[in-house]
Design goal:
Elements lengths: L6 H12 L3 H9 L7 H11 L3 H13 L3 H12 L7 H8 L4 H12 L4 H14 L4 H11 L6 H10 L2 H7 L3 E2 L2 E2 L6
Antiparallel strand pairs: 1-2
Helix pairs in contact: 1-2, 1-3, 2-4, 3-4, 4-6, 6-7, 6-8, 7-8, 7-9, 8-9, 8-10, 9-10, 10-11
Length: 183
């Protein structure tokens, strides 16, 4: 696709979003290179609203752009509570002045009553890699019981933070997670 500033890039994204094939929209977005001009950013915001893999690709491109306006827009989406952002976008926001919004959103996930939503939060925390990720995962480890502790443990391992090793150690043997001790 060349560069995202070319009019044909915007047109390809718009056509792919309007079309029946989400894969085409996702590939059109992934094919973007360089910073996005205003019209391309508008197309990416529209793509974000379609959800699924298109949302993930649009959020990842906007976050990776480093464009202050795009970052502000993503932070606004997160602040509106319209769902979580893909891990790449959350990680990018976590390194900005919007770090607290990301932290609050992820804390909300891990305190949700629905275990599937909590598990999504643990997975995202493991991928975000912010300094505060470990403390939130430790909160999750403390509050969960039985096999529900697996996801916070896995999240702690994904952070790659050496301080997480101490928390994981009691639950891991040379053969992996000690599931019997989780109960």
């Amino acid at each position: 696709m060349g560069g995202s500033t070319a009019p044909h890039a915007r047109e390809a994204i718009a056509a792919a979003i309007a079309g029946p094939y989400r894969a085409a929209a996702t590939e059109a977005i992934r094919g973007l290179t360089g910073p996005a001009d205003e019209a391309t950013q508008a197309a990416l915001r529209t793509a974000f609203g379609t959800g699924g893999s298109v949302k993930v690709a649009a959020a990842a491109h906007l976050a990776a752009s480093g464009d202050a306006e795009a970052i502000e827009w993503l932070a606004g989406e997160l602040g509106r509570g319209g769902g979580v952002l893909p891990a790449e976008a959350m990680a990018a926001l976590a390194t900005t002045e919007h770090s607290e919004k990301v932290r609050d959103a992820l804390r909300g996930l891990i305190w949700n009553k629905n275990i599937s939503i909590r598990n999504e939060g643990y997975m995202l925390l493991g991928q975000v890699g912010a300094p505060w990720s470990v403390s939130l995962l430790l909160e999750g480890l403390d509050k969960e019981f039985g096999e529900k502790r697996v996801e916070p443990i896995v999240g702690l391992g994904r952070t790659g933070d050496p301080s997480a090793a101490e928390a994981i150690h009691p639950w891991v043997e040379t053969q992996g997670l000690v599931l019997a001790s989780l109960e």
